[in-house]
Amino acid sequence: MKVTFWGTRGSIATVGAQTQLYGGNTSCVTVSDKDTLLILDAGSGLRVLANQGFHKQFKHIHILLTHLHIDHIQGLGFFNLFFDPDAEIHLWGPPSSNTSLRARLNRYLSPPLFPVRMRDFNCKLHIHEVTQDQFIIEGFVVNSNFVLHPGPTLGFRISDGQKIVTFIPDHEPALGNPKFAIDAEWTSGYALAKSADLLIHDSSYSEKEYKSRRGWGHSAMHHALLFAELAGVKRLELFHHDPSHDDDELLRLFHHHVDGKWNFEVHLAIENSVIDL
Amino acid sequence: MAVKEIEIILSRQLADCLNIPIFLVDPNGDLIFYNEPAEQLLGKRFEDTGPMPVAEWAVIFKPRDDHGNLIPPENLPLVKSLSLKIPAHGSFWIENIQNKTKHALSVTSLPIIGQANRFLGALAIFWENKQS
User: Integer distance in angstroms from the first to the last C-alpha of chain A?
Assistant: First the structure.
């Protein structure tokens, strides 16, 4: 299984000289085997994937959306495969209590926010609503579950039978939990992340920033580390870099929180990097 | 060990932050959390008991009306919220059979219906009727 980072940034694309190392495109990661491409979130990184034609080598294309905040869907309108009548795309994501996934996506993919409507996509599009589920996509078993973040938000646990990748890009498991991260039974996302070979997890803030942004749905870097430790993962990729953190600041935070302190592998997620599991 | 649903986790965190007695139960009625003010009603500490099955915690109290008659379980707010999935409210006396204390209480209970319409349990809020 191959994991590729196309967008690692959170909230808003932040492309520039100061973010060249870790990247400025918003959430988009692919998990693939020989024939199947799972696109996890459709942030602005999806445009880069499309421009490189990365998807062309795969028979089966599936897009899995954790939630519908703009930084996780803004790349959809720029994925040229939607306009290919020979293409077949499966789109998976959460509905809300009263609104279907298609209707929710239409809010963005329609004027005045976007010039093209979803009904103008002329590929064969299959929309699947998922909540707390287990489903099979070709050679992958995917478990989804709600995690703590404003609005219906999923995390995904993906297994190819040998390795496990867990993707929780937006997550605040420490919210209101004075004992975080001690009690697994009472920790959001734990079952998704337990013993994963690779955990890709929200790491938006510094400790100081988190204090004034509590309840916004994101983790400080040390929360992501504590969560990974509790879950017993083998490798953690710190993800959803805050737009106010340039490369230097990310490195400073990383050295402060990570250096030599954990018994698992930790990295800052880098746009355009590839992990072979 | 089953990891709790996020709606249950958030309910516990809310209860933990409030200074009014709160019980949190799962769809079977098992008491999965009670906060510090509720410990005074139960005469037990959550840190000591942990979660309690319904057969264990429900017999700690004897709920009675103003005339001293026992109230059948199906008329209790929390039982209504669990069985009918509706909010419910009621006032009654409880006698703690372990420490023999009596309290005139009002109880408001709410069903916890989460995302994707999942029924996850109920939350009961207690307060003492000072005028009784």
Answer: 5
Residue B110 domain boundaries: 6-128
Does domain A2-276 fall under CATH 3.90.1150.10? My reply is: no
* Total number of domains constituting chain B: 1
Look at B115 and A152 and tell me if their CB atoms are within 8 Å: yes
**Alpha carbon distances (Å) from A203 to A4, A31, A141, A229, A268:** 18, 20, 26, 14, 9
Q: Choose from B22, B115, B118, B119 for mutation: most chain A CBs within 10 A.
A: B115
**Chain A environment of B116 (Cβ under 8 Å):** 94-95, 97, 131-132, 146, 152
Q: pLDDT band for B8, please (50, 70, 90 cuts).
A: very high
User: CA-CA distance, B9 to A199, in Å (whole number)?
Assistant: 22
Residue A197 pLDDT greater than 60, yes or no: yes
Domain contains B1: no
ipTM: 0.81
What CATH number should be reported for the domain holding residue B117?
3.30.450.20
